[in-house]
Fold these 3 entries.
Entry 1:
Amino acid sequence: MSLDRNKMLNQVAREDGYWDMIIVGGGATGLGVAVDAASRGYKTLLLEQHDFSKGTSSRSTKLVHGGVRYLQQGNVSLVLEALRERGLLIQNAPHLVRNQSFIVPNYDWWEAPFYGVGMKVYDMLAGKLGLGPSKNLSVKKTLERIPTIKTDGLRGGVIYYDGQFDDSRLAVNLAQTAADHGACMLNYMKVTGLTKSGDFVDGVRVTDVLNKREMVIKSRVVINATGVFTDSVLKMDDPDAKNIIAASQGIHLVVDKKFLPGDTAIMVPHTDDGRVLFAVPWNNKVIIGTTDTAIENIELEPKALEEEVEFILKHAKKYLTEEIKREDVRSVFAGLRPLVKAGDDKSTSSLSRDHTLIVSMTGLVTITGGKWTTYRKMAQDTVDQASTVAGLNHKKCITENLRIHGWLKNIDKSDDLHPYGSDKVGIQKLVKERPELGEKLHERLPYIKAEVVWVTSQEMAMTVEDTLSRRMRALLLDAKASVDMAPETARLMAEVLGKDESWINQQIYEYNEIAKDYIV
C-alpha cells in the first residue's frame, strides 16, 4: 500500500483506544521494530520527528557487513550475528542489497598471510550464507581489479566479499512493509513527552510538525528507538536519567568514478586513528570514509569538520595514484553513531556496536546501539521484550524470511529505476501517461521527473530534501547538481501535494541552506 500521510493521520484520529505498541523513531531500528510488530499482528504506530532515516540511517557507508573490524577486536558473536543477518537481508531485499568485492592491498610482507588468515575466519563464520571465498591476489591481479591503486611497494592483495545496499531506500521500503502489514507510519510527528498512568508509561504527547496540531496517543507499551536522541526520551521518562549515548561522527566524501574505476572496493584495515577506511563504488560514484570523532552536540543535520575532510583526503592520497583535491569532491555527508557508553572509555572507535535493550522501571522499552546490518535481529529482541511488558499474547517473529516491499529477484543493475524493485512499474506507468515525466532532472545524475511524482504520492516525501536526499540520493551523490534540481522538484511536488508558489519558494530556500554543508 502507498504511504499516504493524510490517511495515516485520519487512522490515528479515529483510534480512541490503545495501540499495542508506539515506536518513537523512524530510523533503521524503529522501522525494523515496526515491521516486526506489525507482521506479528500487533496494532503498531511509528512516530518520527523528521523524515524516515533522516539521521544516522541515511548516512552510513552503505555496507551490509559482518564487520572485519569487530573480528580484530575479538567480538566474534557480533560478527557471527551480522554475517547471518547480511545473508538474510540479501535474500529479503535483493533489489537493494548486493554482493560487493573488496580488496585489502598489501604493502608489507606480513599483511598477505595476516589478512589472508583473518578473511578465511570471516568466510568460515559466514558459513553457507557466505558470498564467496576470500583469496590472496598477485600484484597483477590486484591491479587488474584496481588500476588506480599505488604500485610503489605493492605486494598484492586479499580479496573478500561483503554486502552493499542503499540505506535510505531500504528505510522507505521498511516503512512500506510495515504499512503493508497494517502499521500506521508517520513522519514529521515530534514526541514532546510521555504520559503515565500511576508510575507506568501509557502513551505519548505529539506535535504534528507540518500542521502544528498537538495530540495525546495511548499505547500498551512505548518503544524508544531514537538512536543518538535516546537520552532525550529517557529524560522525558525520568529527568534524572543518566546519559547512555556517546555520539561519534563519521563523514564520507563522494567523488567521481574515475578515481576508482571498476566495481571492486578498497578496504584499508588500519588508519592513523585505528579505524577501517573504505573506498566503495556506489551509484556510479565512489564513497570514501569514514572518520571517528567524538561529538558533544547532537543535531539532526551534523556537519563535516575541516579536519575530518583533511583526514580522508590524506589517507586516500596514500593509496590512490591520482590525488583527490577538494574541488573533486561532489558531496560530503556526516552521520552520528549512537554508541552506548561503557564506563569511562574515552575512545569511541573502541566502543561496542552490540545493541543494548533496556526496560525502565516505568515500562519504557529502549533499544539503542547496534548497526544497520543487524536491524532485524534488534527488532526481534525488542518486540519480544515489548510484548511481555505490554502483557500482549506472545506471537512468533516471522521477519527472518519476510520479503521486504519492492522485492524483486532478477533486477538489471544498469536500469536506473532498479532501486524501486517491483514498484518500478508504477513509475514507468507515469511516464507512459505523461511522457514529459521521462525527462532527466539533471544531466549528471540518472533521476527522472516521474520519480518525484512517485515518491511524493506513494512514499510520504513531504519536502524537497526528503525527495533529493533520501528517496533519490542526489544530495549525497552530487550536491551542486541537486541544488540545480531543487526548483523543478519543488514544482512537481507542489502539484501532487496541492501547494502554492510560496511553498515552492520556501522549499527551494530551505533546501539550498541544507545543501551548503554538503559542498566542500
Entry 2:
Amino acid sequence: MPDSLEADVAFVHIAAGAARVTPPPGTLAQTAPRRAARCRADDILLLSLGISSSQTLTPGLVDHLAHQAADSYYATNGSVTAALRAAASVVNDHLHDLNQTQAGSVRVAGRLMMGVLRGGNLYLAQTGAGQAIIIRPGQVSRLGSEEAADRPLGQSVSPFLRYNHLEAKSGDVVLLTSNAGPQWADPTLAGVLTLDLTQAVERLGAASSSDLTGLLFRITQPGMGATVPRASQAPTSPPARSRTAKQQPGRSFASMAAIGRAFGPAGQAVQWAYHSLGQRMVSLLARMAPGIVEPGQPGSLSPSVLAATAIAVPVVIVIVASLIYFQRGRGEQFQEYLGQAQAAVVAAQLQADPMQARFYWDQARQYLDQAERYGEGADYSMLRTLVDQSLDTIDNIAHVEYKALFSGGFGRGAQLTSMAATSSDLYILDAAGPTIYHAWNTGRGYEIDKDFRCLRTSEGAAEMGTPVAIATQPEPGALGVDGVVALDSDGTLLYCAPGQTPASSQLTAPDTGFGRIEAIAVSNDVLYVLDAKANAVWLYDASGGLFSGAPGMYFAESVPDLKGSIDLAMTQDELFLLYQDGKLDRCQREREVAGDVLQSIRVDCEKGLTFQDERPGGSASDHIPGAAPIKIVYSAPPEPSLYFLDLLTGGVYHYSMRLAYQGLYLPSNDLEGEVTALALGPPNDLFVAAGSQVYYVERLQ
C-alpha cells in the first residue's frame, strides 16, 4: 500500500432523474490550505452538507456553512476525529442559534457526511441523515447510522457523530451523500467501477428515483488519475467535476485555460490600463527631465527602462519599510502588550475582592494573547504560566496527567464505548470486537487479565450481539462474585467475572419491543435500562443473580419526554438523566405500601436542574457552561457527588449532589482521540477512554 493516496472527485447533483451540470450546494472537496494546522497538511477533506428548514433560508447559507466547516477542520490540531467534530460543531452552532433565536418560527435540521483521506486511511463521519457507499471489486458496503440520522445538526448544543475508519485501497470508489436510504441496487453500484466518474454519475442519475446531492470519488495512487478507464462516448452534459489530490504541477492547466477564456475581456482591459499607465509615466518623465524620451545614445537607458525604474522605486521603499516594521515594529508591539499584561498582573495581585482580581487576571490573559501574535520569550512564558495558574486556582481547575493504562492501547480500530470499575477491577467494552477486557490493579498500575473470557471467546455468548453498555454487578451477583453484566440491543444479557464461566439470559422485552437502548445501570439488585426511543426506563429485578421477569416501568404514571437522553446514573434512591443538550433531570420513585399491599407508586421529577457556580463571576445555568457532557457517573458516599465527561476538552467536571461546581480535571497531555467513556473506581480513580486508549488519574483530591 502506498504511503499516500489521492482522490479523483466528481460532484453528484441529481434532480428529476438526471445528473445536473450545476455543482450541488454544500459539497466540497479540498486539500489543505497553506496555513493549515501542521497535522492537517496531508489531509484531503470531502464534505456533503444538507439543511432542511420549515421556511426558506438565506441563499448560499449551505455553501457558507460548508466552507466554514472546512476552514474549522484544517485549523484544528489533534486527531482526525477531533477535527471532524470541530467542523461539525461550526455548522451545529449556527443552526442551533438559528433555532433558538427565531422563537420556534424557523426549525432547521442539518445533515453532514464527511470523509478524510490521509495516507492509506479513509475516515468517515456522519451527523444527521446520510450514508457512505464503498464500492470495491465484488463488494458494495453501505455505511450509515440510524442513531446519527435521528440526531440532526441544530437540535442540541453539541453534535452527535458516528465515525468509521477504513483502510483505503487504490481503485476504491466511494459515494458520500447527506441523503439517507437506499437509492440503487448493488449491481448498479458495482458497475460504476469500470466507468469514468462523469459517466458513473450519469448512470447513478438515470437509476435514481429521488433527488440527491453529494460527491463520488475514486481513490488513486499519486499521479495515476489519468489512467481511470473511460467509456467510448462521453456524456453530453457532464456534471461538475474536480480533482482533489496533493498538489501536483500542471494538474489544473485545463481549468486555468477555461478561466483565462472567461476573463479574456477583463484581461485585455487590464493590459490596456498598464500600457496607458506606462505611456503616462514616460510623458511625466519627459516633463521632469527634458530629453529623456528622445532617441537614446548608444549605452543610454531606454524610456521603458526608466519608466519601470520609476514604478519599482516605490515598491522597493514599501518592501524596506515592511522589513523595518517586522524587525522593529513587531518587537515594539510585543513589548507594549507584555508591559500591559505585567501591569494587569500587579493590579490583580493587589485586589482583595476575588471578583476584581478575576477581572484583572482575565485582562492579563487577553494582553498576553495579543503579545503572542508578535513574539515570545522567557518573560512572556513566565508571565503566561503565572496567569494561567492563577486563573486555574480561581476556577478550581486541575491540569492532571492522564496516564495511559496500557502501552499501545487496545489496537488500531478499537471502539471503546463503555467502561465499569470497582475498587480493584476495570472492565472495558470494545464494540469493534466486540470484546470485554478485564484489568486489575496490581498496586503499581493495571494489568490485562489474559485469562478473562467473555463475549465471543466464551461458550455462553454465541447468541450475544454487540453490547450497548456494561455495568458492574456486586457480589454475589449471577456468578457468586463481583462481576460485569453486558446488554445488547435485543435484550440479551451476558454475565462475566474473573475466573468464572460466563452465563447468559434473555430479558423479557416490553410489549412494544425495545426501541433504542442508550445506557444501563445496576443498583440494589435492579437493572435500569434507558430506552430513549421508547420513552421509558425499564426495570428488571434480579432472581438468583439473573435479571428476569416482566419489565417494570420506572415512570408509572406521568412519563416525561426522554427524547435526547443519552445516559443515566443511579444513587440509592434517585435517578439522574443526562440529555444531549447538556441538561439534567432528577427523579425519585416512592412506593406507598399499606401493610403488605402496594397502594401506589409515585415518581417526582425535577426537569432541567440548575448547575450552581459559586466561583468569582460564576452564575447558575441549566447546563454546564462551555461543556458538552456525554457521560455521567455517580460517586457513592462518604463523599457522594457526580462526575461528567466533557466531549469538547476531554476533561471531567465534578459537581456535588446539589449540583454545586467542585472542580474540573483537564488533561495536561494530549489524548489519543475523542473521549468516549468514563468510569469511577473507588475511592476516587477516574478512567477515561479516548480513541483506542484508556487513561486513568489516581487519587483525585
Entry 3:
Amino acid sequence: MPITELLARNAELYGQEICLKEINLDLQNSHNVIWKEYELIENNPAGEYRREMTWQVFDEKANRLANLLLKRGIKKGDKVAILLMNCLEWLPIYFGILKTGALAVPLNFRYTAEEIKYCLDLSDSCALIFGPEFIGRIEAVYDQIPKVKMLFYAGEGRPTFAESYDRLTANCSSVAPDIKLSDDDDAAIYFSSGTTGFPKAILHTHRSLMSACETEAKHHGQTREDNFLCIPPLYHTGAKMHWFGSLLSGSKAVILRGIKPDWILRTVSEEKITIVWLLVPWAQDILDAIESGEVKLEDYELSQWRLMHIGAQPVPPSLIQRWKKYFPHHDYDTNYGLSESSGPGCVHLGVENIHKVGAIGIPGYGWEVKIVDDKKNEVPQGEVGELAVKGPGVMKCYYKDPKATAEVLQDGWLYTGDMARMDEDGFIYLVDRKKDVIISGGENIYPVQVEDFLRAHEAIKDAAVIGLADARLGEIAAAIIEIKPGHTCTEEDINEFCKELPRYKRPRKIIFDKVPRNPTGKIEKPKLREKYGASALVEKQTTA
C-alpha cells in the first residue's frame, strides 16, 4: 500500500480530530508569526503560540498542493525539494508531493547555499518549496539552479523571485488527484548526514516508507490514545519515520520548535505527551537541568509519559542510568537505523531489554542482521566486524551513483560501515564507524567505547575521540571534552580518571572544547579533524 493511502484513511475515519500541533515557546522570537491562515489557539502577551490541524485539513492541504503541482506540469517520477524548518505545513507538503507520484526531496535546514545548490542538482529537483529562513540562501543561488523550474515560497514576505505557496494552493481543488501509485514506485530522496563528506542521495520507494510505519508501530505499540512529541528535524528519516507510527495508528503528534529542557517538559505536561524521542544531547540537558535545580519535576504533570527512546547515535549507558533515576517508570528503547534503511530501527533494543542498556539491540521487526569481516564472511560471536542489515526498508540505491551503491548493497544486504559485535545472547553492540577506528601502535581503538567511558565522569557533558597523526605510533587518540556548566576539570583529572581504561585506549591528548554535533545529534568528527589534525593545543585547565 502506498503511504498516501494511510493519510486518506485517517481523514475519512478521524477527519475532525486534531492530528498535529505546532508549538513555539520561544518568548523572544515567536512573536514573529509567519503563518496567518490558521487562527492561533493560544496567543498570550509573552508571544507563545500554538497551532493545530485536523486529519481532514491535513489531507485537503496535501491534495491542494498535489493539484497545483500537477497543473504546473509535475509528473510521476519528477523530484520536488522541501527546505523548511519544522512547522505545521511540513508534512502536508511532503504528502502533497507524494500524491502526484513525484518524489519528495527533503533538504537539511543547515545547508549552506552551495550545499543546497549541490543537492538540488544531484537530485534533479525541478521544483523547490522553501520558507522564510532560507530567502538569503536561495537568492544567492536561484540563478545557478537551471533544473529548478519552479520556486514556491511558504510564508509571509514573499521574495520577488518566488511564487506564493499559500495563495496558489488556496485556489486549488482539495479533492485527491487520480494518480495511481504502487509499492514499488519511487517515493523520496533523502541525503546522508554528510559527516564523512558531501551527502549522497538515498532513493526510497513507497514500500520502504510503509515498512517504516510498520516497524515503528511494532516496536513502540502506538495506539489512538498516544501523543508523540516530535522535536528532531523533519527533513531527516528519523523524526519523520518515528512519526509514521502515529500515522499508522491515527494518533496525535506535537511539533515542538525548541529544545530547552523546560520547553520539552512543559509540552509533555500541557499536551499530555506519551512518547518522546530524544537525541543524546537533549536528554543530557534535561538531566543537567534537573540536577542543577533549573527545572523541578514536581512542576510538571508527567505521569502519562510512558516511553522515552533515543536514536541516531550511540547512547552512553551512564546516561540511561541517570535517566532511570529520575524517571523510573519510563519504558526505554534505543533504535539503530540509517537513512539508507528508512529510519526507525533495523536494530532496536526493545523496551523489555532494559538490562541490556549499552547494546543497540536485536534485529528490528522484519529485519535480518549479520556481522562480517572485510571479505563479507560472518565473524565468530563476540568478535568485531562490520554490521550488515537486510529488510524491507533498505534503500533502492544511491541516486545516480552506481559505484557507491555497489559498495554498500550486495544481494539485498546493506553494509553499514559501522563496526559492531554480538554477545552470547544475540544483542549487538555498536563499536564505531569503520572509518573512525584509530589504529595506534597496531592496536585498534574504537572511539565510541572511549567516549562512553569519558561521559561517565561527573564533570563531562560530552566527549569526542579522534585520531591524530603520530610519527611513532601512526595515530594517537585525542579526546575533545566539553565540560558541564558550573564544573571545573583539568587534564590531570581526566588522565587520572582514564587509568581505569587499558593503557592503549587512554587518550594521549586532552582538548577542552565544545563537541560539535549535526541536527540529528551525530558528532561532526570531520570538523574536529580539520580543527585539530595539524596541531592540537592542550589547555591545562578550563572552567565552564
